[in-house]
Write a structure and sequence with these properties.
Elements lengths: L6 H11 L8 E3 L7 E5 L9 H10 L3 H5 L2 E4 L3 H12 L4 E5 L5 H8 L4 E4 L4 H13 L3 E2 L6 H17 L5 E5 L4 H13 L4 E7 L4 H7 L24 H8 L2 E5 L1 H15 L9 H7 L10 E5 L6 H9 L6 E3 L2 E2 L6
Parallel strand pairs: 2-10, 3-4, 3-6, 4-5, 7-8, 7-10, 8-9
Antiparallel strand pairs: 1-2, 11-12
Helix pairs in contact: 1-7, 2-4, 2-7, 4-5, 7-8, 8-10, 11-12
């Protein structure tokens, strides 16, 4: 059976995206260990890596598919990326988002002229409704279970190897697996010796569960709301991750909050909880600081001001961070 996504697909995605997106910065992070670097996707358009996959997928559609209108579901970052890409492609877009989606991410959809439809208490409910709508007419663009989306995300891997030729380890935030599937395909295709490590929030352990055959629960109230949600049955991301990813780690809510504070205080960047999980893994020695040349993907920077203020004003046992969720050790 042919591979669903190849290095060639990712190279072609890079050529397609080159007219619209430039490489994102790679920045040294010495406090995370010798030879640690941050790949700053929070500095990308729409402040998230998601623009790569959404734009590659939508630019690849033919006129008939675009004319049907785009339908997507997202807890936030994919939504903003789809809205931006649809506007660029002169297509309409309707995007289903959970009711508790941060206002900043809703605003990112509306600013590009797409329709933000708030539905359901969590991502899984929003996705189910979006798929029902797409079945009635519309072009579905998955946030992860789509070869073009994965190939677009994989362009990060091309940039990492170009910017850091001696890279030995790449640390990647994980939700549905589109990002890590693309990055692993890219970097392993160029150098099979590079280690690819995924990091889940302990509150959002879907890929960890698939990877290790565990059944850790989904906790919807989390700083890493961008990573929440189960993985669609039959998703092509799961076999890619099992084949190419070397390890998968978990970080807690307290560790994520510490990483968000670290990113502001030490690096000068605002980063959302889901975008900070790789940083959290090194900051708290969940992954070893062993001197390996390491690129940590910072996947997004869209965080509500209220959440950010609570994170900055709290210690590990401090006030609540996300509507109902205090900074406390997630159940692992």
């Amino acid at each position: 059976m042919p591979e669903p996504v190849t290095l060639g697909d990712i190279i072609r995605a890079g050529q397609r995206l080159g007219a619209h997106l430039g490489p994102t910065p790679l920045e040294a992070a010495p406090k995370l260990g010798e030879n640690a670097w941050l790949k700053l996707e929070n500095a990308n358009k729409t402040h998230s890596f998601k623009i790569r996959g959404a734009l590659n997928a939508i630019l690849s559609l033919d006129e008939t598919a675009r004319a049907k209108g785009i339908i997507a579901a997202s807890s936030g970052n994919h939504a903003g990326a789809v809205a931006y890409a649809a506007d660029l492609a002169d297509a309409s877009a309707r995007i289903l988002m959970p009711l508790n989606t941060p206002e900043k991410k809703i605003d990112n959809v509306r600013r590009y002229g797409a329709e933000a439809i708030l539905f359901g208490d969590n991502y899984d409910q929003a996705e189910a409704e979006a798929l029902r709508m797409a079945a009635g007419g519309g072009t579905w663009v998955s946030p992860y279970n789509d070869a073009k989306v994965i190939a677009g995300a994989g362009t990060i891997g091309l940039e990492v190897v170009a910017q850091l030729p001696d890279v030995e380890r790449v640390v990647v935030p994980v939700s549905g697996g589109g990002l890590i599937a693309g990055v692993a395909t890219a970097v392993k295709g160029m150098n099979p010796e590079i280690k690819v490590i995924g990091v889940n929030a302990a509150s959002a352990p879907a890929m960890y569960n698939h990877f290790y055959g565990s059944d850790k629960p989904q906790v919807w109230e989390t700083l890493a709301e961008a990573l929440s949600g189960e993985i669609e049955a039959g998703s092509i991301t799961v076999p890619i991750a099992r084949r190419l990813v070397d390890d998968m780690a978990l970080v807690t809510e307290r560790q994520i909050a510490d990483a968000m504070r670290y990113m502001i205080e030490a690096q000068g960047w605002v980063v959302e909880g889901g975008g900070a999980v790789g940083v959290a893994a090194l900051l708290h020695d969940v992954l070893p600081r062993d001197g390996a040349v390491t690129a940590v993907l910072v996947s997004g920077g869209n965080v509500d001001g209220d959440v950010l203020r609570r994170v900055l004003c709290s210690s590990g046992s401090g006030p609540k961070l996300h509507k109902k969720a205090p900074i406390e050790e997630a159940g692992v």
